[in-house]
Write a structure and sequence with these properties.
Elements lengths: L2 H14 L1 E6 L3 E5 L2 E5 L4 E5 H9 L3 E4 L3 H14 L12 H10 L3 H28 L4 H6 L2 H25 L1
Antiparallel strand pairs: 1-4, 1-5, 2-3
Length: 171
């Protein structure tokens, strides 16, 4: 399974999770697998994909984690760690960030993307060093996102193959 398929599977799972929604209008929806009967001002937990549709139609407001705050906290935590230690990010962190960023105006999205790139560069450098030096431990696996886990495995396997080729040529 390649990384895009893995991300797609985790994205589907993320969009199936429930999220709290504050309804701005009375809404009644009956569909297979989804039934909503909400009054103006009511707060309900509904699947994220339904919440996003209702939000895009201005019928409800999604009450979700402020990913700007989460990103700033992640950057601070990452900067505090040493060169060979990663802070913990939840497995769907980047999936959540991308979903959040898609709802922003372009100017805000550009600012957030710049901050996200800073975090990615820092973590990617650490992952490269860690993957080149040892196998993944259970402790490290808990700190990585879905995408980072795939990156670690890719670097570890290719680094091991490279070392094998170089050392076998010398014999």
């Amino acid at each position: 399974m390649d990384i895009s398929e893995l991300i797609q599977i985790h994205s589907i799972g993320y969009h199936l999770q429930d999220v709290k929604v504050n309804f701005g209008y009375d809404v009644k929806i009956e569909a297979p697998e989804v039934s909503i009967d909400a009054k103006h001002g009511e707060i309900l937990s509904i699947p994220r994909w339904v919440a996003q549709v209702l939000s895009s139609e201005k019928l409800a407001e999604v009450q979700d984690t402020d990913m700007v705050v989460a990103l700033k906290q992640a950057i601070v935590k990452e900067n505090v760690q040493g060169d060979f230690d990663l802070s913990t990010l939840e497995p769907e962190f980047y999936i959540k960030m991308n979903s959040f960023m898609q709802r922003l105006p372009q100017q805000d999205r550009d600012k957030l993307e710049s901050m996200l790139n800073s975090l990615i560069r820092k973590r990617q450098g650490k992952i490269v060093r860690l993957a080149d030096s040892s196998k993944m431990s259970a402790e490290l696996a808990k700190k990585l996102t879905v995408e980072e886990h795939v990156l670690f495995d890719y670097i570890y396997n290719n680094s091991a193959e490279f070392k094998k080729q170089v050392l076998s040529d010398k014999k």
